[in-house]
Amino acid sequence: MPHILIVDDDDAFRESLAETLGDLGHTVIEATGGREALECLGSSAHIDCAFLDFRMADMSGIELLEQLRAMPERKTLPVVVLTAFATSDNTIHAMRLGAFEHLTKPVGRGVIAELLRKIEASNQGPSADVQPAPEDTLGDDTAPRLLGTSAALREAQKQMGRAAATDSTVLISGETGTGKEVAARVLHDASARRRGAFVAINCAAIPADLLESELFGHAKGAFTGAHMQRVGRFVEANAGTLFLDEIGDLPLPMQAKLLRVIQERELTPLGSNTSVPIDVRIVAATHRDLGAEVAAGRFREDLFYRLNVIPIHLPPLRERPDDIITLATHFLALAARRSGISRTLGASAERRLLAHAWPGNVRELKNAMERVAALARGPLATDDDLAFLAARQVAADDLPGALLDLPLPEAIERLERASIERALQLAAGNRAEAARRLGISRQSLYTKMAAYKLG
After folding, report:
1. What domains appear along the chain, each with residue ranges and CATH number?
2. Between residues 272 and 240, which one has the greater pLDDT?
3. How far apart are CA 98 and CA 120, in angstroms?
4. DSSP conformation class of 415
5. Where residue 122 falls among pLDDT bands split at 50, 70, 90?
6. β partners of residue 170
7. Quick one: which of 156, 221, 266, 271 is 20 to 30 A from 421 by CA?
8. pLDDT at position 230, please?
């Protein structure tokens, strides 16, 4: 991949990246902004790959990517979007527009080398054109969002962005409370079907004898009490998205009927002889292991494969601890806004939140913050205001084996150093904020940083 375009208005970062790429044997073309980049892209210059910064003075990396995808000769150009502050919105939007990857700064040399290897390998075969959706509404504050920037969640966000550029069926898996319906709504809003309806149904909440009518509708007189014709959820979702939550709880007889509708793209309402064509994008979700359900004979294998076209897994909150404080702050602000009483999280409250195992995942965290907003005794929520959370006992199995094998003083030193580095990272280098997060004085932090030669 000899020719690479770098677009970034941060001179220091652009030059550093250019030097790295040059050392790796690539020819680099530099642009200080979107307009200069468009001139390069619109010329006859040969470009094999582009690195775009998300935030630039003249236009954002997303705006540049949208214009790039409108160029017939650049529709399949591999693009890497770089940002100092990753969000659900910019990650999903970038991937929906066909970005090869979305990375947060700074980016190490090894990561860049491996990424370029993947790009080169993926370009050995034919590529399909990427068709961006006609409009973007992801910046709407009322839109559902999957908040968080942890590595585990960002993988799910990237998969959602790629899936949004297609019309394929999606199967979302994850524990109860991880936000599967929110993910389905985000996927719908990012897709070309956003103008259509988003219709959700919980397959576990509808009695088995009513499910067929609920999904497919019924004709007048189809059964006792059917005094009028009713369209089902499939028809309501026509031209939009149908979200089938808890699909793993669907009874076997209904699984066979659902399979036929998915295959034929038409349905017959209960008590009718007339087939109705449907045009829906199906997004299913489950907290169950459908592979195990298939093996146990409780879920049809053919339906599983029909649904599992694009699998997306939402990690439990315990696997994304970096997102806990971000989510808690967001939920607390929302709850406080409704109550009209301002609340913020103190350092002791944050430590209690990080110590909790969150078996109920994001839903449990949201409920906890509503409780804090209503019952906290002051504007600064403390550890006492979260006493209702059971502290998680850290077992030896939760710690890395390499740490447990060290002499105790060395193990403590490594853990303390890692905690300080993480606090500084979360505080964007603000030492006062890092000290607050760690629950120590600034002077103590300065002393420890000097001892560990940090900063």
Report:
1. 3-122 (3.40.50.2300), 151-313 (3.40.50.300), 318-386 (1.10.8.60), 396-451 (1.10.10)
2. 240
3. 16
4. H
5. low
6. 283, 310
7. 156
8. 85
